[in-house]
Write a structure and sequence with these properties.
alpha+beta, SH3 type barrels, 2 domains
Length: 231
């Protein structure tokens, strides 16, 4: 390849990179959050593809047409792969937050662990689908994912078992409070005084002076003395 063609190719690649950076930055700011995230992910792909194609064209100009055809066919696959990963990550966050909010009253720690597990699994599935879309063999990745899933299942089983013990204690304590006390009673426990408002699955609410509401874990009623004060 002569010097003029080499310089022309380098200038073209540089222009593409500059345009991709400027357009990507502008569109990412004005587009909705999810679309902006997609644009941010696509800019590096466009830049890297331009650099690789430019280098290959300079090294072997006879293969220019084949490289352009291959690039044109690869870009849509790359776009789909990036979109799949973004959707998987977003979907994992949304479902994880929903599950976490549903389990938070039972056990905040267990809720966070389950939410993280769901987000990770969905993201892993998205990555596998994206790699398959790009034509990458996923056999080894599937074996690795299976091994990780087995380990996660063991850890999750242990976490659920420990969480179940905590939940059982909370439920038992809640039943104890419901059987021994009733709404309206003036109680004192661990220096907290107030009228019993309600008994939840994990905590009991007492209304103190001035309308302050105290949330007392049900287990505290089993651990320390509870005084029933006269009205």
């Amino acid at each position: 390849m002569n010097l003029e063609t080499t310089i022309g190719t380098a200038v073209t690649v540089a222009v593409i990179i500059v345009v991709a950076l400027i357009v990507g930055k502008v569109l990412a700011k004005r587009a909705p959050e999810q679309l902006g995230e997609l644009i941010k992910q696509l800019v590096p792909v466009v830049i890297l593809t331009s650099i690789v194609v430019g280098i290959l064209v300079i090294l072997d100009p006879d293969q220019t047409d084949k490289l352009l055809d291959a690039t044109i066919s690869f870009v849509p696959k790359a776009l789909v792969a990036v979109l799949v990963i973004i959707l998987a990550r977003s979907g994992g966050k949304i479902i994880g937050l929903f599950v976490e909010s549903a389990l938070r009253r039972v056990s905040p720690i267990l809720a966070k662990r389950v939410s993280l597990a769901i987000s990770s699994v969905l993201l892993g599935i998205g990555v596998i689908i994206a790699l398959d879309q790009l034509g990458v063999s996923t056999d080894i990745i599937l074996l690795l994912v299976a091994a990780l899933a087995f380990g996660a299942a063991l850890a999750g089983g242990l976490a659920v078992g420990l969480g179940s013990l905590a939940i059982s204690r909370q439920v038992a304590a809640g039943r104890y409070v419901q059987d021994r006390f009733h709404p309206g009673q003036l109680l004192s426990i661990d220096g907290v005084e107030g009228r019993l408002l309600s008994v939840g699955l994990s905590a009991t609410h007492l209304e103190g002076e001035g309308g302050s509401v105290y949330e007392v874990p049900n287990e505290r009623f089993l651990q320390g003395p509870v005084k029933v004060l006269p009205d």
